[in-house]
Amino acid sequence: MAVSIFIVASVGCALATNIGFFLLFRAMQASIAACFSVALVLIKETSGEREAASKIGYAAVGWALAPMLGPMFGGTLDELFGWRASFVVFAVLGAAMLALALCDLRETPARSQRPHGNYLATYGQLLSSARFWAYTLCMAWSIGTLYIFLGGAPLAIGQTLGGSSAKLGFYMGLVPAGFILGSYLAGRYASKHALGAILIVGRLITCMGLLVGLILSMLATSHVVAFFGPCMFIGIGNGLTMPAANTGVLSVRADLAGTAAGLAAAMTTAGGALIASIAGLFLVKSGATHVLFGMMLISASLALLAAFLAAFVDWRASKMVS
Fold first, then answer.
1. Per residue, what are the HEC states of 29-45?
2. How far apart, in whole angstroms, are the C-alpha atoms of residue 72 and residue 120?
3. In this predicted structure, what is the pLDDT of residue 118?
4. I need a labelling partner for 219 at 20 to 30 A (CA). Which of 58, 167, 252, 311 fits?
5. pLDDT of residue 41
6. Which Gene3D superfamilies does this one have (predicted)?
7. What's residue 111's pLDDT?
8. Does residue 138 contact residue 306 with C-beta atoms inside 8 Å?
9. Which of 271, 288, 279 is nearest to 150 (CA)?
């Protein structure tokens, strides 16, 4: 259903004759986000817990390539064929995805195992779980750190680059490059270590990188690498964090994995946006790099605390079982 809506919306964008219809269809394209939760559930239901975290890590490498290559590909299409060409390509890719899903995807659990009835009640069951909150808060604060960077970097460092958007885009690309590296490391090692340990390592990497950046900024080090180098650790830490945290969320209730994935994704996105908005109140008044690093470090530190909480909850649960 989500892919079908995306295809129709992409065609609508390509054929739109005014801004109103264009924005309507652009909003409809967001339905494709549901596929993220479906993909997570499919990986979880066909794998063990640690193996699922490893597979999600490898999958995240591919997911991170899209925002890196997409703007370049879209810009080329725009120059060669006009802006509508990008939406034609979206529709074609969506149709290919739909055909692949119809041919290959099958139901994994029996229908009798699916939850029925009031979905608000299932949300209540998830929200009453300390494990769900620990992993979701870790993701929210981690994404919040990224959002603070995305919103604050142009304000804090834009003038240093002479106002060049090309240079800014290149250096900001270091963060998704770090995410690819972190996701690869998650794929490589998540199957061998506990989820809580992966979370803690990921958050420590981010905090240490941002602490170095904060120190350099307070020493008035103005070189662009002194800013973006430490920020690269945001991507590395998030690349390690997201596969483990998503796997933890999906494992709260096996029969509610899909609901958990969707609810956690919504809470993570909304929480990250709220965190970035609050940080923006301080950045607008100052715009100094040390303030930006301070805001990011606070968010990353709270994510680290949530990671320790997740590890503790998992440890306590394993003790109760044994």
1. HHHHHHHHHHHHHHHHH
2. 42
3. 64
4. 167
5. 79
6. Multidrug resistance protein D
7. 46
8. yes
9. 279
Dist. CA 171–CA 152, nearest whole Å: 14
Beta carbons of 186 and 244 less than 8 angstroms apart: yes
In this prediction, residue 234 carries a pLDDT of 95
Ranges of residues in the chain with a pLDDT under 50 are 110-112
Please give the Cα distance from 260 to 245 (Å, whole number): 12
Cα distances from 306 to residues 62, 137, 175, 196, 281, in angstroms, run: 27, 6, 22, 10, 24
* Integer Rg of the chain from CA: 21
319 CB neighbour count, 10 Å cutoff: 8
Mention every residue, 6+ apart, whose C-beta is less than 8 A from residue 256.
Answer: 115, 122, 125, 126
CA distance 319 to 322: 5
Q: Residue 122: its pLDDT value, please?
A: 82
Q: By C-alpha distance, which of 259, 34, 37, 241 is closest to 135?
A: 241
CB of 173 within 8 A of CB of 68? yes
| pLDDT on residue 110 | 46
In the chain, the domains with their CATH numbers are: 2-104 (no CATH), 128-321 (1.20.1250.20)
- Does the global pTM surpass 0.90? no
